[in-house]
Amino acid sequence: MRVENYWDGMMNKSYIPTPVFDTLAETIDLYKSIYDADNPRQQIKKYLEHCFLDLKITLPTFFIRDFEVTLKFLFSYRGSEQTFSSYRRDVERLIQWSWFIKEESILKLKRDDIEEFVEFCIKPYKKWIGLKTVARFKLDNGLKIPNSEWRPYEASLDKKKIKDGKVPTKEDYQFSQNALKALFATVSSFYNFCLQEEVVSANPVMLIRQKSKFLRKELISPVIRRLSEKEWQTVIEITKEKAAKDKKHERTVFILSCLYGMYLRISELTAGQRWTPTMGDFFKDQDGNWWFKTVGKGNKVRQIAVSNDMLKALKHYRTEYLQLPPYPSLDEKTPLIGHDNNPNKPMTDERTIRRLVQDCFDNAAEKLEKENPSEAQNLHMATVHWLRHTGISDDVKTRPREHVRDDAGHSSGAITDRYIDVELTARAKSAKNKLIGSKKSKKFD
Length: 445
What we know:
hpI Integrase, Chain A, 16 helices, about 450 residues, globular, mainly alpha, three-stranded antiparallel sheet
């Protein structure tokens, strides 16, 4: 479908994407403002004209319908900021490709079109690839406008290369298998939503019979990224030593304890729209057992059993850093993690926690560099989420699988089973002296 003044010849080849969906909070506000208006579609038209002001084109009418359906889809996931962000990323890619490459409504795409879109995600135009993460919109004289530096795809390097001073180039762009799986899941969910809204007659993703040409079958369980016992002990001990010299590091010790000891995700440590973790989320039952309540992925509430060591960490943090009584009071509103200069203000920025934990990893890596370079390298690669994996992996060795499953918030025992494995170094060591044939045989000496 071509529209007069839509594109001129091959102009789509030079088009640089302009974002149309902002943060969760902004999307919620946008949704409410549109549907509080007398003419919602007119409001959508004005919004899109604002986004595409620099293009100086007449917007096709299907842009408005597509945007309306997509906005409703994203709004339906407003209960989970993490899910919203993931779905927004992939439906934004779909809508940009459909409008400006395929020149078609997303509601008209067929199976072949979706396959073509997936191929594009694997190898997008270089103009569509960014080299850093930027905000989708920015303020200009008090007005939010699309950020010209934003791109739907991003080239990146691992942390070690960045630390070594290397910078990513567009040639470094890769679309991983995990990204492909997420893309298929998101786009399929979107078209299922469209089916329910009765704006499409079929889900084109479900009609793709050979997804295997895109997705490789995993013959073995995926490797669980985690720290060895030596790495973890080095991380926590160095941080405790720093806290003994300067109490400001007590907060970091407690953060590490929560990530490892209760398998918390970073999103479960910080305050967001759906949940603000507080000290009152620790509570004692009638049998004297301590628990911690949190809201995790999928907006699911779960209750985590608190170990004696975790309880000690909590008491130490409260008395030494927060200057509070050892145990939280019922419904206490003190933030679980507060700002450094204001403990009563809840931490909302995940980047601060990532930076604090990364500093701990770097300090431990520096200590291990001489005695064990491979473990130091592992710490250079590690992310915050590895601490959750490490805690689960260590606990599943000694605790019933079902108990770890419920504390971790896994949807099934099969997910927990991935963690039932000994460390690779221990596996390699135990395999060294395996014999082939009888113990007396020397044929292979």
